[in-house]
Amino acid sequence: MLNYSPTATQCCNFPLTPTLSSLSKSSPSPQLPHSLSFSSALLTQQLASSHVYANTNTNVKSKLLNNSGLKIMCSKSEPLKVMISGAPASGKGTQCEMIVQKFGLVHVSTGDLLRAEVSAGTEIGNKAKEYMNSGSLVPDEIVTAMVTARLSIKDAQEKGWLLDGYPRSFVQAESLEKLNIRPDVYIMLDVPDDILIDRCVGRRLDPVTGRIYHINNFPPEDDEIKARLIARPDDTEEKVKSRLQIYKQNAETVLSTYLNISMKIDGNRPKGVVFKEIDSLLSRVQKDKEASKSGKLAVSDSHSDDKSSKKKNWRGIPTRLNNIPHSREIREYFYDDVLQATQRAINDGKTRIKVEINIPELNPEMDVYRIGTLMELVRVLALSFADDGKRIKVCVQGSMGEGALAGMPLQLAGTRKILEFMDWGDYGARDTFIKIGSIGGKEVDEQDDMYILVAPQNAVGNCIIDDLRAMTNAAGHRPVILVNPRLKDLPASSGVMQTMGREKRLEYAASFDICYCFRLLYYAGTQYPIMGALRMSYPYEYELYKRVDESPGKEKYVILSTFAKRPTGEEINDAFEGKTRNDAKRATGIWGFLSGIL
After folding, report:
1. Closest Cα to residue 254, out of 12, 31, 85?
2. Nearest to 459 by CA among 369, 593, 364
3. Catalytic residue numbers?
4. CB-based contacts of 518: which residues, under 8 Å, 6+ apart?
5. Where is this region: Disordered (predicted)?
6. What is the model's pTM?
7. Average pLDDT over every residue of 63-90
8. For residue 160, how many other CB atoms are within 10 A of its CB?
C-alpha cells in the first residue's frame, strides 16, 4: 500500500508506464524471413537509392526559449528537429503543411513512407504490403528502420526534419532513443474528444480531387461536388472513439520519453491561431540558433554539455532522489520545472496559485529538510519575474501569538534573515525590484506587482489564514504565489481543535489553484524505497509514475496513468496494482478512511 497522506512524508520523481508488454501487444503478424535483414545501414542504402525520396527541409535550436519556460536542448551545429503528435482530426496534417511551408523542414510521415515504398514495388514495400494486406501492423523494426534511413538522407540532415505522428508507442520511442534520434521539440495538439468525434463523423472526401470537406465546418463549394462526396468507412462514431482510446494510451507512454521537451498546444482554435503559437515557438528556437552562431549566446562548455547529458538521461525526471544532499543539477531541474509552471499560470491570468513540491530537501517532515533549498527556489522565482520588469515582494510570516506564547513555526525560524542576507545578483534587484516583507494586509504597497509567500502555515493554537486573507484582499487582481503552504488547522496545546470559522478557513485555503505539484510515493509509514511519483505542471494533467530498477545502480520512472484532477490514494493504489478505474475495488479500513480524507 502506498503512502499518500498529505501529512506524511512524500516527495517525487518519475516516468512510468503501465505494463509495457500490454502496450506493445498486437495481433499475430507474418514472421520476417531470415533472408530479409532490415538493419538501419541496409535500409539507409536502399532508401537513399530509391526514387521515393527527394525534397524536404529545416532550421535550428537553442538552449532556452526566452520567456516561454520551455527548455530546448540542442547542439548549435545541428538543424531543427521536430516531432508532432495529435489525435485523428486534430488538425495535425494542416499544421504540418504550414510548418513545412514556413520553416522548410523535411516532412517525414510513416504513412507516406510505407505508401511510397509499396507503390514503388521495392523489397521493403512488398514486405510491408504483406502485413498490410493481412490486416496486421507492420512490425516496429521495419518502420523504425525506414524512419531512421529517411532521416539519415542528406536533405533531412541539412534542412532538419518534421516527424509526423511517430513514434506512436513507448517501444518505438525507445528504439529511436537507442539510435540517438531525438527531437528538439515534441509538439502535442490537444483537442477535446467531442470536438474530434464531430470532426471525424462530419468529414467527407472528394474522390475526384482528394480534398477533405466537413458537412458543417467546411462544406463543398457547389452541389456538384457535394453530390460526389463520400465518407470514410472508419469515420463512424464507434470507430472514432476506439481510435481515440488507442491514441491516448499510446500518447501517454510516448510522452514519458519526451516530457522535458514537450509543448502542449491547444488545437481547438482556428488553424491560423494554432499555427501562430507553433510559429512563435519554432521562430524563437531559430532566433536563438542564429544568435549562438554570431556569438551572442554563451553556449555549452564541457561542464554544461555534461549537465545536459545527465538531464537527457533522466528523460525529464531526476533519479536517485533519496540521495542527500541533492546534486546541483537536480535542484536546478526542480527550480526550472516550478518556474515554468508558475509562469504559464501567471500568463494565463491566474492570480491565486500555489506550489507544492516535496522532494526530500523540501519536505519538513524529513530530517534531511534544507531551508537553503527552499530559499533558492524562492530566489529563482523572484529573480525571473524581476527580469520581466515586475516588482516582487517576498513575504515570510512573522511571530504569532502574544507575550510568552509568541512564536513561529520551526520550519520558518530565521527565514527572513536568510532572505535578507542572500545574494540577489549584481544588478541591484534587491530593494529595486525585489523587497522582503511579512504576511498581512498592511504589507501590500501600491507599487507591488506580485507577491511570493514562503511556506505560510498555521502554528499550534494560531492561524495564519486571517492575515493571508487580508493580504490577498488588499492585493486585488495582483498575483499571489504560495510556495509549500501548510494551511490545515492545528489543535491548541490542550489538544482541542479550533472549530469556530473552520469551514470558511478551509474554503479559503482551497481557493488557491495548484500550478505545480510533485510528490514522491512510498509504502505507508516508510520513507524508503521510493515507489513512484505524482507530478502536475500547469496546465497539464496529474501524471502518476512508477520507479523501475533497470540494473544495479540504475533506475528510471515510467508513466502509469494521468488524471484530470488530483488522484486519491485509492486511485493511486489501483493504478499501481494494474486495476482499471471501473473494476477497482473500494479500499477499506484505515487506508479507505485516509483515501476519503484525501
Report:
1. 85
2. 364
3. 92, 168, 203, 232, 243
4. 11, 12, 334, 337, 356, 357, 358, 359, 533, 534, 535, 536
5. 292-320
6. 0.51
7. 62
8. 26
